[in-house]
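Predicting holo structure, GLP bound.
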Amino acid sequence: MRVYAEKTYDDMSKRAASVIAAQVVNKPDCVLGLATGSSPVGTYKKLVEWYNAGDIDFSQVKSVNLDEYVGLDGSNDQSYRYFMDTNFFNHVNIDKNNTYVPQGTELDEAKACGNHEAIIKKLGGVDLQLLGIGRNGHIGFNEPDDHFTKDTHRVDLTPSTIEANARFFANEDEVPKQAYSMGIRTILSAKKILIVASGEDKAEAIAKSFFGPITPEVPGSVLQLHPDVTLVADAAALSKVKDIADFKNV
Ligand code: GLP
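Done. Tokens:
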């Protein structure tokens, strides 16, 4: 796998944006798998900057998102649809009709999850999947468990994730307790994966994901099975990796 060890969050964001830009230049009608969270905010910012400078065109790009809170409508400022609109889609020339986020307001699990899988299939699969990682190693909302879930599914969020995400809500009670998330097979089906990680509190998740056993207890560890992964991380997120050169063997 490829790793870019960057100094700061800003450097990380610029590098990750350049990987996405390369994908869009190589295949203007590509399907981007997108992620939310604070890790990719800077990446989206950079892409918007380059769009404004006339350097990148999203008019033919399609996108599909990893996850969404169950019960939240796209107009709710904590929904991942709202996040995508305000951090990225509203600022570039992507056609919003070509952007897909799991439908949080569809409370029928089979329908919501089936639709999301069907959309990905219809689009021909994801060319490049952007991922963040949770402090406990979750990817999308695939939480540590005793098994892997393959397809898009409804998840009960763990107390650690609820606590981590409470910073975005008025208080912890307001954090939705469930989400829809792409499954492990959905994520691994992407042709390429780009994972961004920043900060000390991700260091353990990164070290375990890439150098520990492949186990559903650390969902990010499945990335060791994917043939085309690029990790872009800052120094703090890499602080528990013994030697960056070891990534060559992952
Ligand atoms: C959230 C999202 C994930 C994200 C992760 C890390 O719960 N569902 O897709 O990667 O947590 O978030 P952050 O980048 O804010 O640390």
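The chain is about 30% helix and 15% strand.
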